[in-house]
Amino acid sequence: MSEQRKKVTAPAIRAMKGKARIGMLTAYDYPSAKAADAAGADIILVGDSLGMVVLGYPDTLSVTVDDMLHHTRAAVRGTKSALIVGDMPYLSYHVSVEESVRNAGRFIQAGAHAVKVEGAKPSRIRTIEAILDAEIPVMGHIGLTPQSVNALGGFRLQGKNADDARRLLDEAVALERAGCFSLVLECVPSELAAMITEQLIIPTIGIGAGPSCDGQVLVFHDVLGIYDGHTAKFVRQYAHLAQDMQAALETFLADVREGRFPDEEKESFHMASDEELKRLYASRDDGGVVVEMPKAQ
User: Based on C-alpha coordinates, what's the Rg of the chain?
Assistant: First the structure.
């Protein structure tokens, strides 16, 4: 996208409800955020999924606030227009309300415009309200909440039966009433996501939640086919860059080993003139050994 877009804000995202579909991508560093922003992403989520796709952890639970702030600052430097949401990691909003607000504030000081918090039990609602009271916009997240993977018994579809679906619907309403400007629905039945989307006045952003949400999000590395780990059913890969990257690196290494890189003309630098080269050789002390002088290029 060549023309400069207006800066996206949390109120602007909320106002998109029913008017335009919201496109959201994760990004974890300067080049990925720059690419996502230039492509026209409305929201860039600096997600704790970086634990798996960047840091190599098996899940998100080992990611720290300092990890997230480091990557948030990098993503901020690559972004001009998109709304940047910092994903609050495990234990950053679980211990106390005061600590939660302080951690959320650190994301804002790092350049994020909002934070995302998983879950909607009563204690979480109180925490979200306190963060909002500190003038920090909050994006909610229900359904499959990866930080609760141990409590949920794995990465599983949520809301399959009527009782569980009703609970998620109630949680969505509670998050809206608390003041969240948008809500991520992860890995829930399409029918339930459609019902929640219809009932709420804030936009829903789906990931594995069917086509009826107000927006969709995918992980940067999944979209581009960079991550070589498990790929969920809801992922659509738009490229297979991991294969292209490996092939390019293998070709480079083969060129080095076979002497094809660098090329003497295209990829090398040379002395200013034959005269300068002669002066260099004249200054050498070769112990009487005669060395053939190459020509300057």
Answer: 26
293 band by pLDDT with thresholds 50, 70 and 90: low
Q: CA of 295: how far to CAs of 44, 275, 280, 288, in Å?
A: 54, 10, 12, 21
Any domain includes 222: yes
Is 186 annotated in the active site? Answer: yes
Let me know if residue 216 belongs to a domain: yes
Supply the pLDDT for residue 289: 53
- The answer to whether residue 292 sits within a structural domain is no
How many CB atoms sit inside 10 A of residue 295's CB?
8
pTM, entire model: 0.92
CA dist 256 and 144 (Å) reads 47
User: Based on the structure, what is the number of domains in the chain?
Assistant: 1
Residues ≥6 apart with Cβ < 8 Å to 196: 168, 169, 172, 183, 185, 204
Q: Which H or E run contains 129?
A: helix 122-133
CA distance 289 to 243: 50
The Cα 136–Cα 130 span in angstroms is 9
pLDDT at 277: 93
Catalytic residue among 118, 171, 176, 186: 186
Q: Which residue has the higher pLDDT, 284 or 120?
A: 120
